[in-house]
Specification:
This is Aluminum resistance protein. By secondary structure, the protein is an alpha/beta fold. It is 36% helix and 14% strand.
Length: 470
C-alpha cells in the first residue's frame, strides 16, 4: 500500500480565470489571492501570497519526507499504546490524594517509556513547565559539592536562576546548595566544540546537561546522533557522570530519542511537542528507573513515590490523545519551519536552520536585525492567530528571563508552543524564534501577514508608535 504526500493536495493547482465572473471581492492585502464559488462553497485557488506559493512548490520533496517521518513515529506511538493495553477507563480523572486512580497514570508512564526508549517515565500534570521538569531532574542528580557541566553552551534563560548563573535571591538555586557550575562554549560555527567536550569532564562532575534545542542562542540544534556522540565522550572521561538532556522541542522530530543513545534522563513539557497541541498542562521526565524515581521525589516529596496526586476532569484523556497526535502535529510544525526558512531567506534574512537543511527540533530562528522588525514580525503572527488576533503583543519582562521578551501566541492553550507561535528577546541580533502550528498552511497564511507588515509604510507606523511610547 502506498501513502501519498498530503502536501500536494493541501496546495491546490491554479484554475483558469473563466471563473472570475463569480469571484468574490478581496481586500487589498489579499489581492494576489483568487477566490471562486463552486457548488455554493468558496474555493481559494491561490490562498498564499506569491512568495509563499513559490516556496511551497519548491518544498514538495521535503514535505513528503516529513510525511514518511510522521508515519514511522505514528507507528511507534501506536505500538506503545497497544502494548500498554490503553482503554477508555484510563481516561478517568481523580481527586484528592489520587489514591483511587484507575491505572491511567501507570499506563501513560508505560506508553511514554516505550516511545522514548526509557526504563521508566513520569508524566504528570503537576509539572507546570519544561523548566520545572528539568529542575526536578537536576535536583535528583546533584548534591552539595557536585559540579554541573553544560556542554552545549549557555542553557535556556529560564534555567539561569535555577542553576545560579543569575542570582535567585536565596530562593534555592543549585548554587545556593553548594553545586558548582561550568559550561563548554560552542565552537565558532555554533556547533558543539568536540575537542573541548572531550576534555571538559572532571572527577567531581556529577551531571552533564545537554540542551537539544537552540533556545535563544543562534546555533544549530543537536541531532540525536550528536547527543549520542557527546554522551560517549562524557562517559569515557567519567563513567559516573550522569547525562540530562533538555528535550524540549525535540520530541518526534527524528526517529530516535536521547535515552536510546545513552541519556540517563530527559525532561520536557506537554504544552510543547508531546502534548499534541491539546494537553492543557504538564511535563515529563524519562530515563533510568532509579533517576526517574529521584525526580519524582523532587516533584512531590521523598517517600511519596509516583502513585499519588490528583488529575481531575478530562486531563488524562487529553494527555493520551495529545501524545497520539504528537507525531502528526510535530510534522506540521517541521513543514512550517521549512516554509519560514524558505520565505524569509528569499527576502535576505539569515535563518537557522538553513532552508531545506535537516531539522533537529521544531524551532526556526530568523535574524531580523532590529527591534522594529522583531515587533513587526510578532504583531503579524499574532494577527494571524485564532485566539486574540485583535491583541497587539507588547515586549516586557517575563519571569525567568533576563531580557525583555515579546511573545506572539494566540493559542488555545496559554503559552503553548506546539501551536503556532513565535517569540524573541529584545537584544542583539533581534532574532525571532518560531515554533509549532497545527497545520503548515497556517504558517503560509501568517507569512503573508509578515510580508505585508514588512512593507515600508507599516514599519513606519511601528517606528512612530515605538518612539511615541518611549
Amino acid at each position: 500500500m502506498s501513502v501519498s504526500s498530503c502536501a500536494a493536495s493541501a496546495h491546490p493547482a491554479r484554475r483558469s480565470s473563466s471563473r472570475g465572473a463569480r469571484a468574490s471581492s478581496v481586500n487589498a492585502r489579499s489581492s494576489s489571492r483568487v477566490s471562486a464559488y463552486v457548488n455554493g462553497l468558496r474555493r481559494v485557488d491561490r490562498p498564499f501570497v506569491a512568495e509563499v506559493s513559490k516556496a511551497v512548490d519548491a518544498l514538495q520533496s521535503e514535505f513528503r519526507a516529513v510525511d514518511d517521518l510522521v508515519a514511522y513515529n505514528t507507528t511507534r506511538v501506536l505500538n506503545a499504546f497497544q502494548n500498554a493495553r490503553v482503554g477508555s477507563h484510563h481516561f478517568a480523572g481523580c481527586t484528592g490524594y489520587g489514591h483511587d486512580e484507575v491505572g491511567g497514570r501507570e499506563a501513560l508512564d508505560k506508553v511514554f517509556a516505550e516511545i522514548f526508549g526509557a526504563e521508566s517515565a513520569l508524566v504528570r500534570a503537576q509539572f507546570f513547565s519544561g523548566t520545572h521538569a528539568i529542575t526536578c531532574a537536576l535536583f535528583a542528580f546533584l548534591r552539595p559539592g557536585d559540579e554541573l557541566l553544560a556542554v552545549a553552551g549557555a542553557p535556556y534563560d529560564t534555567l539561569e536562576e535555577v542553576i545560579g548563573i543569575r542570582d535567585s535571591n536565596g530562593l534555592g538555586s543549585l548554587k545556593d546548595f553548594g553545586v558548582t557550575y561550568r559550561e563548554v562554549p560552542l565552537a565558532s560555527d555554533g556547533a558543539l566544540d568536540w575537542d573541548e567536550v572531550g576534555v571538559a569532564v572532571r572527577p567531581q562532575t556529577k551531571c552533564a546537561l545537554i540542551q537539544r534545542s537552540c533556545g535563544y542562542s543562534w546555533r544549530k540544534s543537536l541531532s540525536v546522533n550528536e547527543i549520542g556522540k557527546a554522551i560517549k565522550l562524557i562517559k569515557m572521561q567519567n563513567p559516573n557522570c550522569l547525562v540530562l538532556v533538555d528535550n524540549c522541542y525535540g520530541e518526534f522530530v527524528e526517529s530516535m530519542e536521547p535515552p536510546m543513545v545513552g541519556a540517563d534522563l530527559i525532561a520536557g513539557s506537554l504544552i510543547k511537542n508531546p502534548g499534541g497541541t491539546i494537553a492543557p498542562c504538564g511535563g515529563y521526565v524519562a530515563g533510568k528507573e532509579k533517576w526517574v524515581a529521584a525526580a519524582a521525589a523532587r516533584l512531590s516529596a521523598p517517600g511519596l513515590g509516583i502513585d499519588c496526586g490528583s488529575t481531575p476532569g478530562d486531563i488524562m484523556r487529553t494527555f493520551f490523545q495529545g501524545l497520539f497526535l504528537s507525531p502528526q502535529m510535530v510534522g506540521e510544525a517541521i513543514k512550517g519551519s521549512f516554509l519560514i526558512a524558505e520565505v524569509m531567506s528569499s527576502k535576505g534574512y539569515k535563518v537557522q536552520p538553513l532552508p531545506r537543511a535537516p531539522r533537529n527540533d521544531t524551532v526556526q530562528a530568523v535574524q531580523l536585525g532590529s527591534r522594529e522588525l522583531l515587533l513587526a514580525f510578532c504583531e503579524a503572527v499574532q494577527r494571524s492567530c485564532p485566539v486574540g488576533s485583535f491583541i497587539k503583543p507588547v515586549a516586557g519582562v517575563s519571569p525567568g528571563y533576563a531580557s525583555e521578551v515579546i511573545f506572539a501566541d494566540g493559542t488555545f492553550i496559554d503559552g503553548s508552543t506546539s501551536e503556532l507561535s513565535c517569540d524573541g528577546p529584545l537584544r542583539e541580533p533581534f532574532s525571532v524564534f518560531c515554533q509549532g502550528g497545527t497545520h503548515w498552511t497556517h504558517w503560509g497564511l501568517a507569512l503573508g501577514e509578515v510580508i505585508e507588515q514588512f512593507s515600508p509604510e507599516s514599519l513606519l507606523v511601528i517606528d512612530q508608535a515605538f518612539h511615541t511610547n518611549n
